[in-house]
Amino acid sequence: MTWRPQYRSSKFRHVFGKAATKESCYDGVPITCSVQDNHFCAVNPRFLAVITECAGGGAFLVLSINHTGKVDPQHPRISGHRGNVLDIKWNPFNDYCIASCSEDSTVKVWEIPPHGVLKNITAAWKELQGHSRRVGLIEWHPTANNILFSTGYDYQIMIWNLDCPEQVIKNPVRTISHHTDVVLSMSFNTEGSLLATTCKDRKVRLLDPRSGQLQRESNCKTHKASKVLFLGNLKMLFTSGTSRYNDRQFALWDQDDLSLPLSQENLDGSSGVLFPFYDPDTHMLYLAGKGDGNMRYYEISSEKPYIHYLTEYRSNLPQKGMGVMPKRGLDVSSCEVFRFYKLVTIKSLIEPLSMIVPRRSESYQEDIYPMTAGNKPALSAEEWLSGVDKGPVLMSLKPGSQVAESYSEMTKVTRRFQSRPGALQLSNIQDQVATKDGREDSGKTEDDRSRTPVSNGEDLALCSPPRTENELRTKFHKQQEEIRRLRELLSQRDVRVKQLELEIKNIKNSQPHQNSL
């Protein structure tokens, strides 16, 4: 009997990385020079935020996701911290809310105007004061609304409830003090009922995030963990770190038994930290090393050997950090299953990198886009604190199935932002929007109110100014066409009004004649 090799059938075997063109990158961004092992970048379908290098305090930049090309060196920033900003994270349930932590030992939560940052913002929506030393890492709870976790160089993890009227919050709802050194990473399981951490003592800990109780702790001498990641619903943990000989290494753990890893593998002798990223919808794992230009990706299964190497994306541009677009912001028409935003410090460049499944058909591919976590919270903060656990609210990525954001919700964010001190730069625009909304809202149906304002097929909240003469000419012609269509519509309305006036006049004239009979 002849031996034949075993082949795994996988629809993601030929996934490839496609870097964006120069015009689709963000050029001239002064990326931070901090040596912290964080991502330094956060992305959602509307905005891209990146920590920048600046003097006299800390700041970060928030750009519209469509504001590609050369970035103005004087672009307004969010600059309310007194020390360097070390980490930023978008609220998963609010695209206009972002949290930041800093060397000034505070965590601040900011509200971004719907039309973008047009002036420096220094007044935060919430300020969290509880840490005694600098804060290096923050994470939002994956299913509960307005629950934020922070950890710093005081070796403590603090849980904050933002659903309170105070602008300055000094007392966290709980403090977790099981770590003996600096916490290097935090990761939640799908429901948010378990929290995994890695510490500078190289141990992996599994905690109950609500009570702070320590459930399990690894004590493996052959693997020094640096970053940890829950692998969706597989009940496994993935860690990246180093071996006892300082080779870069990753390991896979059973979350119910952290005594020994299920699998571990050495990669190379480089010194950069390995950032792991996991896609629970495709079960693909991406490994990007700090200072590397390449990126490895694997497929995870629930059976041995658990980790299956697929291939590697190679580039000569080393990354300092990485941002990841949520699944709801991907381009499903091109079979894009993951998108990174590479921070290239040597060129002051942010380069989008799309991971694409090659398919001939241009129609929606349901087999690679299952129901995924959406932007609606499953729980309120009070429900989660009272002991309730729920999985994420799922949504479909099929075009047309997503519920558009309510215009009233966007104006609500606008008015709340406008009411805060130091945030009046959009008052004229917002007054016009509010006045127009008040005049027209009475004549709109509920479906009309649920639509996001669009002009020429572009979301008004995301439009960026033209940067070249050709773009300016194109926008001018589009505007002229829209004006022509509006004039035609207005003339049709005028004709209709005159017809109705004549009908009313005829009815009034016929009534006296009928009464006389």
How would you describe this protein?
The chain is α+β, with helices and mostly antiparallel strands and 517 residues long. The chain is globular. Residues 1-5, 403-412 and 417-458 have low confidence and may be disordered. The strands form nine sheets. Strands 1, 2, 6, 29, 30 and 31 form a six-stranded mixed beta sheet that branches. Strands 8-9-10-11-15 form a five-stranded mixed beta sheet, with no helix packed on it. Strands 3-4-5-7 form a four-stranded antiparallel beta sheet, with no helix packed on it. It has five helices and 35 strands.
Task: Let me know the number of strands.
Answer: 35
**Unreliably modeled segments:** 1-5, 403-412, 417-458
* Strand residues, percent: 25-35%
Shape by Cα distribution: globular
Largest sheet: 6 strands, mixed
The quaternary organization reads as single chain
The structure class reads: alpha+beta
Number of helices: 5
Average pLDDT figure:
85
Helix content: 10-25%
Output the radius of gyration.
27 Å
How far apart the termini lie comes to 109 Å
